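Subject: Sanity check before I submit

Could someone independently write out the structure tokens for this chain? I want to compare against mine line by line before I put it in a report. The sequence has 101 residues.
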Amino acid sequence: MSMTNYRTMTKRQAAKALDEYLAERSAALDRLGAELAADGVDPEAMLDGTPDSLTPLWRWVATRIVGLEDAPAPVSPDAPAPPEWPSWARCTSWLRRSTPN
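---
Independent answer below. Compare away.
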């Protein structure tokens, strides 16, 4: 799916984007668990689904966030989104517009 703003999607496009997002959730959760484990964090405790787990999870995520300006190579706003990006990022056009040249 090319870079598309969710607000301008047709119902069919939105349904396809939602299906893609839901289909990738399990694999994404597995990757997150593997990243936590590789970083020495217990994924069972961190991803227990309780509201109390959100703050420690966010703190862990915040230490790993890389800004677009820190990306290995600049991204052209007209280039297709990298296929390894999750569907929500590939469908969010503001990410592309805010990327420095």
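---
OP: Matches mine. For the report I'm noting this point. Helices lie at 11-38, 43-46, 51-62, 87-90, 93-97.
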